[in-house]
Amino acid sequence: AGANLNGRTTLAGRPVDYVVGVETFTEGTEFQFHDGLQNRRRVNPALNDRESEITSVSAFGQANVSLHPLLDLSLGFRADTFSGDCTRLGPEAGADPCDDLDEIGAATPKLGVQSQVLPWLRLRASYAEGFAIPNGFTKFAIGAQALEPNTFEQVEVGLLASLGDTLTIDVAAYRLRSSEEFRTVSPGVFE
Predict the structure, then answer these.
(1) DSSP letters along 109-166, please?
(2) 185 confidence band (pLDDT: 50, 70, 90)
């Protein structure tokens, strides 16, 4: 569920288009995994028999202002929090973690610049950040509670050329970097 407000206002005599909003969702997953079948019958207890729930609450906003044909600015932000829990539904033979998820959150910016340098040529550049929480049941591990979210930084530059009435060329180059990545060494141990 969510709501947003889109609008236009003026700032120092310049039009500003904006959007602000909030959103939330809850996702529940029941997961059961058995290993070891004999004549299509389960012969071992489930490796995993559990239900997990993740709740996200987010706020976001973006404003676009044209200061001059050579300078269009776009400024944005996003703030997210995640919480959740994991419940075993029966006996498990596996060692995957299943604990409460401490609240994880991050705020991320976005900045963009565009410039109409010639009637047929528009240049652009942008910087944005994002993040991701650990995947699968890793996020419910006691040892994973101290892990920082995986963060991403993206820089993009590009151009849009309109060559006549029938040909438009859009070229972009970008670089995406991530940090705080980790791997599971053994159940509850991460590096």
Answers:
(1) EEEEEEEEEETTEEEEEEEEEEEEPPPGGGGG-GGGTTPPPEEEEEEEEEEEEEETTT
(2) low
